[in-house]
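@channel sequence for tomorrow's demo:
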Amino acid sequence: VVAPLMERIGDLWNEGSLRVAHEHLASSAVRSFLAGMLSNNEPSRGAPRALICTPLHQAHEMGALIISVTAAFEGWDVTYLGPSLPAEEIAAAVLQKSPRAVVLSIGYPPDDPRLPEQLRKLNRHLEGAALLVGGNSAQAYGDVLEAVGAIYVNGISEFRERLRNL
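structure tokens (generated this afternoon):
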């Protein structure tokens, strides 16, 4: 429900039917709702761990929040790190948490020339964790995702399946 709602709000904002204030209000309400769902989830002992965030200069976090809740509902112990994290900070969290998966949401922009180097830096510090990457702009970085061995995820259903396979 949340993903289609946010897409619709984005479409209405883009066509001018909603003002920026309306989009921000809706995003804030949905962000609070998702954060509440995530904080109320108690993973079982021994649940696989996932770190979820957006890489540096990727400020649109709604996709990362949605997949954080999805992963938690799939039984994963989720640490949501937030938006726009440098590779070094994600790598430090990998060392601290020892996740089975690092999940990145890449929503906007689709043409950041700095992102490929961030992905390469992160890849050097995954410590065996799988790197899953999805989002509206993820395909635009397909070459570097392939080069670093990332698993491209196309949508929530595929994300759930990938988690089950890990």
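heads up for whoever presents: The chain is about 50% helix and 15% strand.
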